[in-house]
Each structure stands twice: as C-alpha cells, then as structure tokens.
C-alpha cells in the first residue's frame, strides 16, 4: 500500500503542506476549522492508520511493562459532563483502572484538564508507559497523544478519526434483551428517552432498542423524535422538555406504556416527573434505566436497569494497554464487556394485560 504523505493531504484540501504540518503538529498556528478539516482528511486518506508513519516516539511502542514499576500510566478523564472520580459511573471505572494498575505495580497520574497546551506539559515520554482515556475526550487531545506515539486505550468512548483500542459495555445487545423482556410482559408502546448524539454508548443503546422493536413488528420513534434529541441529559435540563412532551401525549391519549431511558440518571428524573404529573410507576408507566448506579436502587420505586460492570471495564482497559505495548503490531480491538439485566419494581406488565 502506497504511503500517504502530508503533500497528498494538502493537495486533497487545496492548502499548503505547511498548513497540514501545522495542523497535525499540535502546536497551533492554524484555526480550529482548518485544523479539523485537515484531521478529517488525514483520517479519510488513511494517514493515521499507517504503521509508524505518524508516531514520533516509537520508543513507546517498544517498551515492555516488565520494568513498569518505575513508570506511570496517564488516566485522562476531562472534567466535562460530570466525568469526575466522584461520579457513580465514571468513578467506578476509575476504581477498576486504579486497582489493576496497583496490582501490577504501575503508577497512575490522573489528568482532568482538557486544554491541549496544558495537557502537553504532562506528556513526559521518559516516565509514561501509556494512556487510558475515560469518557468523552476531544479529538485534539487524542491527536496529541497519537502524534507522540503513546499507546492508549479508551473506555466508553471512541473517536472516528483517531484509531485506537476501546472498551465498552455491550450496549446494543443489552438494551435489545431489556426491550424483549418488556415486550414479553405485554408492552407494545415503548419509547426511548435520551439523546442519541450525546455519546457512542447512547447511540448503540438506541440501535438495540430500535432493533428489538423492529424484530417484534412494533412501531419505532422517528429519528427526529424530540425524545431522542433531548438537551441537557447530563445536567437534568431536559426535564421541562420531557414534561411538556409527556403532557401533550397524555392529552392526545397517545401515551407509551414503557419508557426506556438511555441511563439511570435520566430514568431517575423521568420517575420524578411522572410522579409530579400524577402518573404512577409502575402501575401506569414502566420505567427502565441503564448502568446500575447506586441511586437507581435508591429511587422510588427502584429502577429496573442494566448492570454495567464498571470496575471490570477499567481493569480490562489496563490489560489491553499492556497487550498493546507488548504487541504494537496487533489489530486494533473494540472490546465489549457483557452487561446484565437487573429486575426491580419500576417495570411490570402494562395495565389491562
């Protein structure tokens, strides 16, 4: 296969090789729009996928974790969308990463700053074994890591432009099983609540939901349905929009019998709105979540959900990072960790069945 060069990228975009070099260097000097165009074109042309073509520090890929006790792994978890170590979801993943690194005698440096210039100062090639990214991470940050040739694994996130190993819960299959369970109880009017553009996990959960309904001959919401594109699903700002939609459905007598929420945090707030407008859960409406955070069990009523083995995902990311360091030539992998259905009081057969 012929090598893709910066000049080819420049010709493809109609810009100078100097602009391409600046955009890919991570050192600035090019506006955001142009940089994003260059990164996307480079990815489409296969520039990043070339063995050793882009990575500047190949010593990373040749290191062995045998002497790892003297080195550290950077855990990058930008403090956005409530991705903090105190989170009931992200914090558990971080605990798994920490436990596995500690068991292997490897140090850990947590970085929450999402600015590329600040992050670059942390990247000391002599002391870094690799990087584990947790949650949503900007492409520019991942590009900087890739530019330096640092082995990395992403947990619950992937970037369409930067090729890297990833670890996810088996989102699609899990929601598919959950929906089949609800359909087996007699539900025929199911609705998905979330934002399918919020993250890859949400998108995969929506795909599993849609597949289950289609296989059972049930009507699926249109892709422009407002409940699929709710704003503020991470902050709770979506509540007013959801309440307005719910009341309109109630007035039109087009209420679903089951609400399949993209995660537990959404499901908890959905339960609160239902209680506010006088709809009983589960007698009049079944509600389900995803993730099995502690608050889902404490909700009233406790929420039927999917248990995501969060610590196991963190541990698996460490194991994969070590494998990547020892075998840099292996094909990139997307690992799906099995998740389990947890039956609780928020789901029953629809009234009248």
TrEMBL record:
<dbReference type="GO" id="GO:0003677">
    <property type="term" value="F:DNA binding"/>
</dbReference>
<keyword id="KW-0805">Transcription regulation</keyword>
<protein>
    <submittedName>
        <fullName>LacI family DNA-binding transcriptional regulator</fullName>
    </submittedName>
</protein>
<dbReference type="Pfam" id="PF13377">
    <property type="entry name" value="Peripla_BP_3"/>
</dbReference>
<keyword id="KW-0804">Transcription</keyword>
<keyword id="KW-0238">DNA-binding</keyword>
<dbReference type="InterPro" id="IPR046335">
    <property type="entry name" value="LacI/GalR-like_sensor"/>
</dbReference>
<feature type="domain" description="HTH lacI-type">
    <location>
        <begin position="4"/>
        <end position="58"/>
    </location>
</feature>
<keyword id="KW-0678">Repressor</keyword>
<dbReference type="InterPro" id="IPR000843">
    <property type="entry name" value="HTH_LacI"/>
</dbReference>
<dbReference type="Pfam" id="PF00356">
    <property type="entry name" value="LacI"/>
</dbReference>
<dbReference type="InterPro" id="IPR028082">
    <property type="entry name" value="Peripla_BP_I"/>
</dbReference>
<dbReference type="InterPro" id="IPR010982">
    <property type="entry name" value="Lambda_DNA-bd_dom_sf"/>
</dbReference>
């Amino acid at each position: 296969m012929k090598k893709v060069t910066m000049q080819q990228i420049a010709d493809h975009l109609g810009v100078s090789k100097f602009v391409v070099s600046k955009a890919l260097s991570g050192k600035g000097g090019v506006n955001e729009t142009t940089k994003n165009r260059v990164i996307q074109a480079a990815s489409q042309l296969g520039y990043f996928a070339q063995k050793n073509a882009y990575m500047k520090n190949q010593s990373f890929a040749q290191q062995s974790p045998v002497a790892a006790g003297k080195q550290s792994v950077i855990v990058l978890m930008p403090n956005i969308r409530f991705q903090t170590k105190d989170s009931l979801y992200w914090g558990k993943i971080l605990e798994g990463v920490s436990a596995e690194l500690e068991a292997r005698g490897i140090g850990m440096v947590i970085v929450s700053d999402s600015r590329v210039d600040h992050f670059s100062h942390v990247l000391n090639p002599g002391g870094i074994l690799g990087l584990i990214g947790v949650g949503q991470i900007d492409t520019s940050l991942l590009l900087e890591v890739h530019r330096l040739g640092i082995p990395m694994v992403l947990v619950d996130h992937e970037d369409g432009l930067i090729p890297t190993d990833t670890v996810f819960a088996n989102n699609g299959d899990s929601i598919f099983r959950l929906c089949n369970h609800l359909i087996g109880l007699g539900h025929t009017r199911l609705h998905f609540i979330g934002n399918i553009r919020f993250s890859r996990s949400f998108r995969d959960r929506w795909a599993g939901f849609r597949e289950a309904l289609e296989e059972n001959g049930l009507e699926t919401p249109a892709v422009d349905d407002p409940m699929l594109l709710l704003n503020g699903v991470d902050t709770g700002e979506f509540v007013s929009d959801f309440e307005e939609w719910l009341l309109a459905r109630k007035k039109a007598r087009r209420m679903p019998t089951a609400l399949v929420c993209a995660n537990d945090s959404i499901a908890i707030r959905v339960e609160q709105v239902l209680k506010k407008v006088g709809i009983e859960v589960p007698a009049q409406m079944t509600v389900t979540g995803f993730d099995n955070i502690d608050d889902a069990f404490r909700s009233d009523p406790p929420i039927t959900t999917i248990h995501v083995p969060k610590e196991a995902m963190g541990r698996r990311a460490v194991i994969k990072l070590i494998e990547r360091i020892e075998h840099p030539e292996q094909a990139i992998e997307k690992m799906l960790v099995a998740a389990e259905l947890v039956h609780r009081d928020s789901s029953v057969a629809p009234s009248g069945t």
